[in-house]
Amino acid sequence: MSNKTLVEMIEDIDTSYLTEQEKNAAIVSAQTSEILVGSVFAAVAWVKKVASKGFSIGSAKPSHA
């Protein structure tokens, strides 16, 4: 299994048929996709962490002064 980033994979293939602008656009798109996927995974991990602690909304008894 390869742990290369999308950018590394793009740079490893023959892109001689692409203009420099098209290659740069592909790299920017790949970087954006990696950031988006990383953010989604981080959000899912955070939700799992919060959910594993349990939701205690409204379970606290009100204190009267």
UniProtKB/TrEMBL annotation:
It comes from the Bacteria. This is Uncharacterized protein. The lineage of its organism: Bacteria, Pseudomonadati, Pseudomonadota, Gammaproteobacteria, Lysobacterales.
